[in-house]
Amino acid sequence: MTPALTRRGRVAGLVGLVAAASGIAAGGRALDAIVIPVAIALAAGYVQVSRVDVPAVRHVTPADGFVGETREVRLEFGPDVTGDTKSSRSFLADVFVRVDDGLDGPTAPIRASVGSESVSYRVTYRERGERTLGPIELTVTDVFGLFERELVVDETDAVTVYPPRDPIPARFRRALHAADAVDVSRQREEFDRLREYTRGDAVRDVHWATTAKRDEIVVKQFSAETARNRVTIAGGTEVGGGEELSGFGAEDRSPSAAAADELARATVSLVLALLDDGVPVDVRLPAGRVSASPGDRGRREVLELAARTGPGAVAGDEADVTIIAEADGARFRTGDRSASFDDLRREAEGERPADGDVGWSRTDGAADRQGVASP
């Protein structure tokens, strides 16, 4: 885009024209005092702005995070950020970064000396999914503020926003993997093999005879430690359609997109709680499946799957837990019993529903007064 006069530049040009007309009428004596300095400033400003090239830019992106978190993003300008050895001049500009609809970004341009300093701004994660930072709009001005020029830097980057996580009560989690705990205790005496000691191993598991023959500690490993049961979880929505999640605001999201959000939130809440308990999980959602073990890698795999999943039917009926999500909430189903995600969340937060009966109900409509025993 070619340089254009700013409001200040138009005023300066008008003053110069009036001074020139007055000087001509007065015999040219006022030309040196006003007209020539104004003309020089306008010419210098035009040349300065017109010689600016689109700068190299690099986003220093923040870490992925959960809905509701706020992070700082930094922009670095200049050839150094791309490895280019060509020198570039710094210039004044108003920097404005456009961000994805699922993010809250800067609302006003940031004044900066591009090329000599970095620019920082804050974003708040509002909706799950892969969200885009950029492009970047620059309004370049000269030192006098007489001319401006619009530049667009098509440099984008992305962050992954995870669904929010809610607490799940301990008695519900234990009911899912209590059988696994029994299996571990029964298989404790079934010797599997010898292995090197790792931090956290119990002293009672040290195999002293082998340790005495080697320069390292050797421990016994039992079959329960090599073949621990997994909890399988399958999730889906009961709302048809496959609209894309992007493009829907918080106030006009489609029912299928809202149901997908509920599915992702319920899945993340349950799976992360189980991983924190040390229980491995298999997760199947409309966007794919993962087998996750306790640890950072397993957590990230589950979070990324939940961040990108959309609406769709439940994949398979043989799961230990089936999550059925609608636009207004989700339910966990195991066998012929189901539990509301909202009720479990309130229970975990110490809030009981008015009827005082949180937990399981028969999916066929029959009353189930036994429930699941509290720990």
Automatic annotation (TrEMBL):
The protein's name in its UniProt record: DUF58 domain-containing protein
TM ranges: none
Domain of life: Archaea
Domain DUF58: 194-231
A Pfam family assignment: DUF58
Coiled-coil intervals: none
Biased composition (Basic and acidic residues): 335-355
Region (Disordered): 335-375
UniProt-listed InterPro entries: DUF58
